[in-house]
């Protein structure tokens, strides 16, 4: 397995994200078994696997929504130290509000559907302590613009918007505070192909222009292939294989990865 | 000239789990290439030429052997280097021209070509100017520059691909049939750019169906045909 946790020889930068040996069980179901993951600054890590493989559970842990039975999670950021799973609820909430952005597959999880779109983005800024109405409006508008949201619809509530537009509001909310880490849980599932291409293009541009580190979970190998630098393949709560995206797709080593790649291409 | 790449005892095969089968591609390959040298890989279909290129680029994982690349940061074994190091070297020192463009939805031809420059820190306006110049060199019509290459013909896509991959001089350049589907003018532009890169010190390893176009650039030949004399100097080779 090439999920190298040892120090690289050329790139001296430390990984931004390190999840180490995380396990989680719900009664007798092992959702995650000894899972480790790293992501370097500006890198896109793709996580693939069938439903129930544990990929979304892993993402929720990276967003500190869940705590594993064992394992640790660190982010290499100023003023952020130690195992993040040991933080209390308030500290977790502040860290997620200011340094981590998330886009859920289901916009209902990430948005207040009856509040205005700009209000949804402003809410994120409010949690981080911003109080000036003018600044809130300006920053929310800038984030929505970066997500290619049509500005004439700033006041429209997400419930009145299409699926693609709702994902753009989620994305604007996620990037409003310029997070170090952006987590994406099936961000294009359920969108039609042309809208999916728009969202993928926006994500790629954000990653390149702002060097945001991203972790994207998807069962759609095309999406992962378009966005990810490295890919981790999960099955039944464990990582079966990890490597550079082109290597995983062109020369998969594990029987399950071969099955997955052959089924999709 | 200093050595850029030392390949020693490199072997590659594929395990097809659903057939419970091992397929060998090549075995115990050794050769080296120096700065400014142009090495041609030859061999019948299936001899493993493209597989070797992909293994050097680490799209394929080798099973045995050493790929010692003399990077700007010092020597590194590409067969075992960390993924993050390989990704870094691909952005900065190792280029790979395949037969196919990886077009992305809703990304224009000029933006695709400018991307390697932007990632290397060139400001967007300058990167776009240089990208347009490269597209012009390879004969892509100006009206296509802002268009999305997903709908281009195979030949036009390949021109965009070449402009993108060859825009930044690299230390090591891998070429997998880059002239396939190119018209005569684009072939001439490619050969001129390769000569320029070679003179600049780029080490080139290439597979060509019809190497006649690049005959004058080739320094040495490595024959992957099983039991062939592996390495020959350019003068002894009949194509």
From TrEMBL, chain A:
Q: Which SMART domains match?
A: AAA
UniProt-recorded name of the protein: Phosphonates transport ATP-binding protein PhnK
Q: Which domain of life is it from?
A: Bacteria
- What Gene Ontology molecular-function terms does this entry list? ATP binding; ATP hydrolysis activity
Q: Coiled-coil stretches, from where to where?
A: none
* Gene Ontology biological process terms from the UniProt entry: organic phosphonate catabolic process
Which SUPFAM superfamilies does this UniProt record tie to the protein?
Answer: P-loop containing nucleoside triphosphate hydrolases
**Which keywords does the record carry?**
ATP-binding, Nucleotide-binding
* Pfam annotation, one family: ABC_tran
Q: Where is the ABC transporter domain?
A: 17-261
UniProtKB/TrEMBL annotation, chain B:
* Organism from which the protein derives: Candidatus Rhodobacter oscarellae
* A Pfam family recorded for this sequence: ABC_tran
> Is Ribonucleoprotein found in the keyword set?
no
Asked if the record carries the keyword ATP-binding, the reply is yes
Return the GO cellular component terms, semicolon-separated. Answer: plasma membrane
According to UniProt, the name of this protein is Phosphonates transport ATP-binding protein PhnL
Q: Which GO terms describe its molecular function?
A: ATP binding; ATP hydrolysis activity; transmembrane transporter activity
Q: Record's InterPro entries? A: AAA+_ATPase, ABC_transporter-like_ATP-bd, ABC_transporter-like_CS, ABC_transpr_LolD-like, P-loop_NTPase
Keywords from the named record = ATP-binding, Nucleotide-binding
Span of domain ABC transporter: 5-239
């Amino acid at each position: 397995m090439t999920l190298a946790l040892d120090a690289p020889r050329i790139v001296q930068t430390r990984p931004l994200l390190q999840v180490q040996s995380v396990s989680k069980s719900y009664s007798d179901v092992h959702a995650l078994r000894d899972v480790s993951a790293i992501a370097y600054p500006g890198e896109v890590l793709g996580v693939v696997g069938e439903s129930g493989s544990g990929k979304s559970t892993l993402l929720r842990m990276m967003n500190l929504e869940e705590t594993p039975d064992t394992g640790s999670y660190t982010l290499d950021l100023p003023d952020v130290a130690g195992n993040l799973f040991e933080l209390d609820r308030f500290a977790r909430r502040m860290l997620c509000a200011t340094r981590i952005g998330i886009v859920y597959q289901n916009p209902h999880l990430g948005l207040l559907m009856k509040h205005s779109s700009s209000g949804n983005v402003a809410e994120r800024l409010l949690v981080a302590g911003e109080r000036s109405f003018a600044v809130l409006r300006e920053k929310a508008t800038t984030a929505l613009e970066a997500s290619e949201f049509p500005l004439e619809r700033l006041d429209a509530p997400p419930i009145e918007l299409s699926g693609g537009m709702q994902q753009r509001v989620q994305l604007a909310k996620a990037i409003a505070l310029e997070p170090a880490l952006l987590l994406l849980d099936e961000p294009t599932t359920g969108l039609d192909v042309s809208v999916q291409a728009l969202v993928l293009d926006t994500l790629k541009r954000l990653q390149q222009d702002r060097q945001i580190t991203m972790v994207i979970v998807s069962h759609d190998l095309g999406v992962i292939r378009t966005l990810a630098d490295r890919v981790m393949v999960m099955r039944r709560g464990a990582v079966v294989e990890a490597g550079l995206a082109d290597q995983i797709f062109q020369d998969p080593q594990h029987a399950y990865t071969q099955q997955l790649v052959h089924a999709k291409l | 000239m200093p050595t850029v790449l030392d390949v020693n005892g490199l072997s590659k095969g594929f395990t097809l789990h659903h057939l419970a089968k091992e397929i060998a591609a090549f075995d115990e390959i050794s050769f080296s290439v120096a700065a400014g040298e142009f090495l041609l890989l030859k061999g019948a279909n299936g001899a493993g030429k493209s597989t070797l290129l992909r293994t050097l680029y680490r799209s394929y994982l080798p099973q045995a052997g050493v790929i010692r690349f003399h990077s700007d940061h010092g020597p590194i074994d590409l067969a075992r280097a960390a993924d993050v190091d390989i990704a870094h070297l691909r952005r900065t020192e190792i280029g790979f021209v395949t037969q196919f463009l990886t077009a992305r939805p809703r990304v224009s031809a000029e933006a695709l070509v400018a991307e390697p420059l932007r990632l290397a820190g060139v400001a967007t306006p300058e990167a776009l100017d240089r990208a347009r110049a490269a597209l012009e060199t390879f004969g892509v019509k100006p009206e296509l520059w802002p268009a999305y290459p997903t709908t281009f013909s195979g030949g036009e896509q390949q021109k965009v691909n070449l402009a993108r991959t060859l825009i930044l001089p690299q230390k090591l350049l891998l070429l997998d049939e880059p002239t396939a589907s190119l018209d005569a003018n684009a072939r001439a532009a490619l050969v001129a750019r390769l000569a320029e890169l070679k003179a600049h010190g780029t080490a080139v390893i290439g597979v060509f169906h019809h190497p006649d176009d690049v005959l004058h650039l080739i320094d040495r030949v490595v024959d992957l045909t099983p039991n062939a004399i592996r390495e020959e100097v350019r003068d002894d080779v009949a194509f």
